[in-house]
Amino acid sequence: MNPIHYRPIIASALLEDIQSGDLTSEAIFPPEQLCTAQLIAKQAGTVAGIEVFKETFLLFDSSIEVELLFADGEQCADRDVIAKINGPVLSVLGAERVALNLLQRMSGIATLTHQFVQKAQGKCKILDTRKTAPNLRVLDKWAVTLGGGVNHRHGLYDMAMLKENHIKAAGGITQAVNQLLEYDNHQRPIEVEVTNLTELKEALDCPVDRIMLDNMDNETMAEAVKITADKIDLEASGNVNLDTIEGISLTGVDYVSIGALTHSVKAMDYSLLVV
Question: For a pLDDT cut of 90, what percent of the chain falls above it?
């Protein structure tokens, strides 16, 4: 990803953290003092955000040297050295926390996504959702792809999704689709959420691109796959976890969307240590 897309995120995070200066470090270290540090993984997982990690240091102080020993998307083991950092101690410690925060969140997302992808065994694609941290969507969704997942729509602007509230307020699936087509003329893809097989059959009669099966059990989803007979892509959604993903993937759906990839992810554990 071009750094221009995430530099504003880094700059805002650095400003939030350092404000008028690093009180602790500035009291102890002279500007000319240099240091060497290592980024160490404290658990096995998927490295994601290492380019963002590097860019954080360079944006803070372009004289810092960052040597990356792992690339984004690679698997690391506990205690692997992921990167080496050389530069003024004031700058290294000033950028450390923001660099780690972004790396840890992205790696946590990628690691969890990778686990879902492994469980699905290639039978369906793992999708993210819009349940991302505010202002971090570009990084959250990038992390999903680094874990082997696929991005759903990036926002409200690039794909129309008719959910339960839209359908109820419009008076039904057909009415909602017709109003959408009149407004956008199918310039962008359309997805419709259905909660039962009756709604599925109605949606199949509409010119839509994907149907979401919302909170259906596996037996019902397997029946939906038979009814659609590969005429349209089906997406399963609703309370998916690592214990249920394998069974869902066996129903024959094309996609499974999982909000937990980004809305409640556990950060991957790293340490940055001066050596």
Answer: 99
- 200-259 tens-digit pLDDT: 999 999 999 999 999 999 999 999 999 999 999 999 999 899 999 999 999 999 999 999
Spell out the residues 6+ positions from residue 158 whose beta carbon is closer than 8 angstroms to its own.
188
For tokens 């969140």, name the residue.
105
Task: Please state the φ and ψ torsions of residue 166, each to the nearest 5 degrees.
Answer: -60, -45
131 is catalytic: yes
Determine the Cα–Cα distance for residues 198 and 209; give it in Å rounded to an integer. Answer: 18
Q: Which domains does the chain have, with CATH numbers?
A: 3-112+266-274 (3.90.1170.20), 117-263 (3.20.20.70)
The yes-or-no answer on residue 164 being catalytic is no
pLDDT tens digits for range 72-89: 999 999 999 999 999 999
Catalytic residue from among 22, 128, 140, 193: 193
Q: Is 214 a catalytic residue?
A: yes
Catalytic residue among 131, 209, 223, 246: 131
Query: Which tokens hold the place of 99?
Result: 């660099």
Question: Angle of helix 173-184 relative to helix 197-204, nearest 10 degrees?
Answer: 30
Does the global pTM surpass 0.90? Answer: yes
Cα–Cα distance for residue pair 109/115, rounded to 1 Å: 10
Cα gap 180→201, rounded to integer Å? 19
- To the query of whether residue 153 is one of the catalytic residues in this protein, the response is no
Dihedrals φ, ψ of 162, to 5°?
-90, 105
Q: Which sign, positive or negative, has the C-alpha torsion 147, 50, 22, 38? A: positive
As a whole number of angstroms, the distance between CA 94 and CA 22 comes to 6
Residue 257 CA from chain centroid, whole number: 11
